[in-house]
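Deviation from plan, reported transparently: magnesium ion complex.
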Amino acid sequence: MMKIFCPDECLGSLFDVDLDELWRKGFRGIILDIDNTLLPWAGETLDEDTIRWVTRAREMGFRVCLTSNALRERVHRIAAALSVPAVAGAVKPRKKPFREAMRLLQTNPWETVVIGDQMFTDILGGNRMALYTILIDPVTTEELKATKLMRKLERRIIRRLSRKGYISESAARRRLAKSRG
Ligand SMILES: [Mg+2]
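Because the crystal trials were delayed, the predicted structure below was used instead.
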């Protein structure tokens, strides 16, 4: 039951994602979360490194799509800045936004990666669709009150997954230290 929350990889940030390795493994589409993955929660401005990361992924041949539970207008503004499509008002972890993203990416589940900072939206949703899931540490600890409550639960599950050996001890320790709001 726990395994539905377990990411395939647990990394510090977007910049720790090994794009070459993902490409070699046959992945061609990337579904990216926005808040606390690409930029601080409710942020507007993408930093240079993030833009460069997305550009590099696209130059390699990856197709990239943003999915976010955030408001449509903001999501599309950020997507336009990166020249990628987006699914807004996504209500992750429901399956629909992931299906919609794959339709835009024109990829199959086995060649699609999800990258996000939340276990109960990005990772659970991706796992429900049998996608390859990468959990990264949130960019900031600032977020919605509801999300903060979820983080508590998230930390408990991360500890459990780490004890069972599904998440490395070092990744769990780093994550637990960083996600404490
Ligand atoms: Mg997020």
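DSSP finds seven helices and six strands in the chain. We consider this an acceptable substitute for the interim report.
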